[in-house]
């Protein structure tokens, strides 16, 4: 599936640039929510709705399990489709892109001392630090592959078909695996449910040693960004 949401993709590429700069301790996800939510705890029953290609999909079941676990934190309960108050449809995608990062090239004024330990004094860059006394002598463009992962969750009133909540989460990493990105997308998309209508924010989640989500609380943007003007979006995925 495709997520042609240009503004979110631009944010994802910005976050990818931060990742390429070495910020790999955290995963940052851009989240946009549209809400007409009025449900109470008593009515938070739901069933997943699948389109044709999602039927009998193990991948779909895997992602639904992640979402169900996160929804349970907000008193949502799965129910048979005939009795559920909400239908939840999900869409997801991953696409590759290239990120060009401009990196400085530095001149070594003492190449004869540039051994493995930077000369006999054990200082790798001499008295002026790693950049020498004159700074960079030029720049070179390096290309890196990045992968934009996206998740959209839509909640509709089952009886009326009214859309009650829609949230989109987008992030970028150097890993092409959507499966590895999905826990961060799910947790970011549903953090602080329900968000106000038109909320746009960045959610930052720490990465543990196993590539999963640590026990730290999701850190979102400040109040000003939470209440920011909605990012203009193109056609969304149904």
Please tell me about this protein's structure.
The chain has 4 helices and 8 strands. Strand 5 and strand 6 form a beta hairpin. Helices cover 19% and strands 34% of the residues. The chain is of the alpha+beta class. It starts with 5 loop residues before the first helix and ends in a 12-residue tail after the last helix. The relative contact order is 0.24. The longest helix has 15 residues, at 6-20. Strands 3-2-4-5-6-1-7-8 form an 8-stranded mixed β-sheet, with helices on both faces. Helix 2 packs parallel to helix 3. The protein is elongated. The chain has one domain (6-226). It has helices spanning 6-20, 58-71, 178-190, 223-226, and strands at residues 26-35, 45-49, 77-78, 86-106, 136-157, 163-173, 199-206, 219-220. Mean pLDDT is 76; it is low at 1-5, 8-14, 18-23, 117-123 and 222-238.
């Amino acid at each position: 599936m495709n997520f042609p949401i240009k503004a979110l993709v631009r944010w994802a590429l910005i976050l990818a640039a931060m990742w390429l700069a070495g910020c790999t301790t955290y995963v940052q996800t851009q989240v946009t929510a549209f809400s007409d939510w009025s449900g109470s705890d008593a009515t938070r029953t739901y069933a997943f709705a699948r389109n044709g290609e999602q039927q009998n999909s193990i991948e779909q079941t895997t992602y639904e399990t992640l979402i169900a676990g996160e929804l349970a934190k907000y008193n949502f309960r799965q129910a048979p489709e005939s009795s559920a108050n909400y239908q939840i449809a999900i869409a997801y995608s991953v696409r590759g892109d290239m990120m060009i990062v401009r990196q400085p090239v530095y001149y070594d004024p003492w190449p004869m001392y540039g051994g493995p330990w930077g000369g006999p004094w054990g200082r790798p860059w001499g008295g002026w630090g790693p950049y020498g006394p004159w700074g960079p002598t030029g720049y070179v463009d390096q290309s890196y592959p990045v992968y934009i992962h996206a998740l959209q969750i839509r909640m509709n009133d089952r009886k009326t078909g009214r859309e009650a909540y829609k949230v989109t989460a987008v992030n970028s990493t150097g890993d092409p695996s959507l499966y590895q990105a999905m826990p961060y997308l799910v947790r970011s998309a549903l953090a602080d449910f329900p968000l106000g209508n038109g909320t746009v924010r960045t959610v930052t989640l720490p990465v543990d040693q196993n590539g999963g989500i640590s026990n730290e609380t999701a850190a979102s943007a400040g109040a000003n960004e939470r209440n920011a003007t909605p990012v203009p979006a193109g056609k969304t995925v149904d």
